[in-house]
Specification:
By secondary structure, the chain is an alpha/beta fold. The protein is 44% helix and 15% strand. The protein folds into two domains: 244 residues, Type I PLP-dependent aspartate aminotransferase-like (Major domain) (Aspartate Aminotransferase, domain 2); 109 residues, Aspartate Aminotransferase, domain 1. The protein contains 14 helices and twelve strands.
Length: 382
């Protein structure tokens, strides 16, 4: 299936989760939309784009659950999260809860919102490697307080690839009186997903990672009771005209990534999404176990708490620091043509193995050999 993507010949790409890879067929659909826009730009952008966006949102709802009127398009999950943070009135004494696995950009956005309001950012520390669901739930339960106004929860943690027990965590936070904003950047296309059924207040996600949409295609879902107070991070002409109106027009921008989602959804349906999901889940976990056995140690989380990404430890010889992790990534990419995400956790450097249907076990075995070679490079390690 690799020829369906415009990947560089000879390269091993094990990092689909970072910025995605767009199918040739979806890129072609996007090019057609861009051509259509340019034939009558003002007509399309000022008169027709709203209906087209709402139709595309209905397709999103058909995949992720609920109704199109509860979804708006954003450039990415971080943009949606910023919109919620800016729309949430925090006060001195309020607390915003994150975890030590929270995506760095999201943590920064939360820290900034707290700083502006005089609120406190509180961090729950989830152990890693993770043994079971309760190990993830207990630290969040302990960190919640009567002052927790907002909890930001990952559905799938970015660096550590853990599928958190989100429904249980949402109930826990609501019982404590906190609203819940979910960072679901890695969830669509990787796990069985019904966003409204999770019970959260807001859910931000990317469609350009695992649902094959063009880059720059995210969505924000909001429960009906919080929509009236929710505004985009960029306020434009549609202020106070309603949830979808405000987000559908935040100024002149290229809507083609959003309008290309139906083409991506068509391809996913043709391919058979459950089969894609199950194949990628199995491959990622098999590869993680292979590397863990080869280099000694355990995988990052139980199979039941992973999606289509899994973590495996690198040899203990590598000191656990971000500078070395980045140096190793550069060596693998530019000398071995292998793209993979590496990060330090719990005293080791770990590889986040992202499996897509253009990958096969031989790709991960090639990674293992390359890592063994790098472990023998004294100059690099020291």
């Amino acid at each position: 299936m690799r020829p369906l993507w415009p990947l560089e010949a000879g390269a091993v790409y094990l990092n689909h989760g970072t910025v995605g890879v767009t199918l040739r067929a979806v890129l072609a659909a996007q090019a057609e939309i861009r051509d259509e826009i340019e034939r009558q730009p003002a007509r399309f952008m000022l008169r027709e784009v709203k209906d087209r966006l709402r139709a595309a949102a209905e397709r999103v709802a058909g995949v992720l659950g609920g109704q199109g009127r509860d979804y708006v398009f954003t450039d990415n999950a971080t943009t949606g999260i910023n919109a919620v943070l800016r729309s949430t009135p925090l006060r001195p004494g309020d607390e915003v809860l994150v975890t030590d696995h929270t995506y760095g950009a999201v943590r920064n956005a939360a820290a900034y919102a707290c700083r502006q309001a005089g609120a406190t950012l509180r961090t729950a520390e989830i152990p890693f490697p993770l043994a079971d669901e309760e190990s993830a739930i207990a630290p969040i339960r302990e960190a919640l307080s009567v002052n927790t106004r907002l909890a930001i929860l990952d559905h799938i943690t970015s660096e550590t690839a853990i599928v958190l027990p989100l429904r249980r965590l949402v109930e826990l936070c609501h019982q404590a009186g906190a609203r819940v904003l979910v960072d679901g950047a890695h969830a669509p296309g990787t796990i069985d997903l019904d966003i409204p059924g999770l019970g959260a207040d807001w859910y931000a996600a990317n469609l350009h990672k695992w649902l094959f949409a063009p880059r720059g295609c995210g969505v924000l879902w909001a429960a009906e009771d919080v929509q009236s107070d929710l505004h985009p991070a960029v306020v434009s002409w549609r202020l106070d005209e309603g949830f979808t109106a405000e987000f559908d027009w935040t100024g002149t921008r290229d809507p083609s990534p959003f309008l290309s989602f139906p083409a991506a959804a068509d391809f996913m349906a043709e391919l058979g999404w459950p089969a894609v999901r199950d194949h990628n889940h199995q491959l990622a976990n098999d590869a993680a176990r292979m590397l863990a056995e080869r280099f000694g140690g355990t995988v990052g989380a139980p199979t039941a708490m992973t999606g289509v990404m899994a973590l495996a430890p690198l040899p203990e010889r590598f000191p656990a620091n971000r500078e070395l992790a980045q140096a190793l990534r550069e060596e693998l990419l530019y000398k071995q043509q292998i793209e993979v995400h590496l990060a330090p956790w719990a005293g080791r450097i770990w590889a986040r193995l992202a499996a897509q249907v253009y990958c096969e076990m031989a790709d991960f075995e090639r990674l293992a050999v390359a890592i063994e070679d790098l472990a023998g490079d004294d100059a690099l390690v020291n």
